[in-house]
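Possible race condition, two jobs.
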Amino acid sequence: MSQALLAGISRTTEPHTMLRRFLALDAVVTGANGLAYVLASASLGRLLGVDATLLLGLGVFLTGYAAGVGHLASRPQPPATGVKLVVDANLAWAALSVVALVAWLSPSTAGTVWIPVQAATVAAFAALQWAALRAAGR
């Protein structure tokens, strides 16, 4: 990913600020998703055709994960090891979402749309974070 594209998306040319912004956006989106799963697991479960207990557990996990990513985003220079863990976790989440959709979930039409969309979003966060981390290391 080019430096110019990253700068355009993050609205800065400073690599550490880019990285922090991508981490912060990930934390906000993931936290909102996690809170929605926690607070509305029953209704979202019906809408998505996914077990409400599974959504509740995922929501608790995502809320904690978002807090950790937010903590990294708050650092002036997020440590590379922490960012790499976030990138790896995001890639694993995206892959496992697709595997779950194919292998064991039987979601509704809304769930069949939502699961790949959220997986693609998380994979995009990973790509942006990885590119910004590389730019920050130069």
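Job #2 (started ~2 s after job #1):
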Amino acid sequence: MTIWNLGSINADHVYAVDHILAPGETLAATDLTTGLGGKGANMSVACARAGARIGHIGAVGPEGGWAVDRLTEYGVDNRWIKRLDVPSGHAIITVAEDGENSIILFPGANRALPIEAIRAALAEAEVGDWFLTQNETNLQAEAAALAREMGLKVGYAAAPFDAQSVAAVLPLIDFLILNEVEAAQLEAATGTAPGALEVNDVIVTLGADGARWFDNRSGTVEDFPAIPVTPVDTTGAGDTFTGYVLAGLDRGMPMGQAIGLAMRAGALMVTRPGAADAIPDLAEVQAFLQPDRSQG
């Protein structure tokens, strides 16, 4: 099957700093790198690196050809990425010595995609495919409705959190993933806890405490402990987790098994600097934390 991802494509400008800036503070960075990012691009790369067939639906500006090429190098089908006369999206990211980060987003072309481009992409989808989206593009609700009408399963990462966008998409989805802060924001906005939502599967990521899966069909809740690592950069860790979960489900894995694999992918990813370019492939994830059988 195929995962169709309506998602952002950004240039990530990553500044290494001693600590996250406080209001009014000026701080010299110790390093600067630029690479591929955006929640959408990160998730597409993660899906591809996890072995899924992934078609990215999105847009870049006149200067964004390098990002499209990079996605292709990682195995993402780029035929539905439009070149628009709008600057590409970009992010200014500061990463502190303890791995924590802060991010400023410029949406650019990510929020200028025409609905015709989404229709053209999903015209090639098949019943049973997955559709995935986040809150860094336009037309999420319209695209989710179209995907649902066509018999696709719909996944949604409710980030960056926006109450109006989430309210529009919630009735259309089968799978919801969000972090602990976003879950609290969602409950405040809707008055409904994750385990009471009319969504089949809800995953709340808990950072160093792991993840929690709400199976709302059965009413059960399962916790998954985090894998202890020393973080270098947490940028894109949640996106990596999401992509690996969706790729696992697309391959027919039970949810618990898909989450377990995604936990390992996210843990390995945060030991490396960068976003999309740091996402491990399936072989690396499967080998992570396994005993070295060549020894002894």
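The first strand starts at residue 2 and ends at 6.
Logs attached separately.
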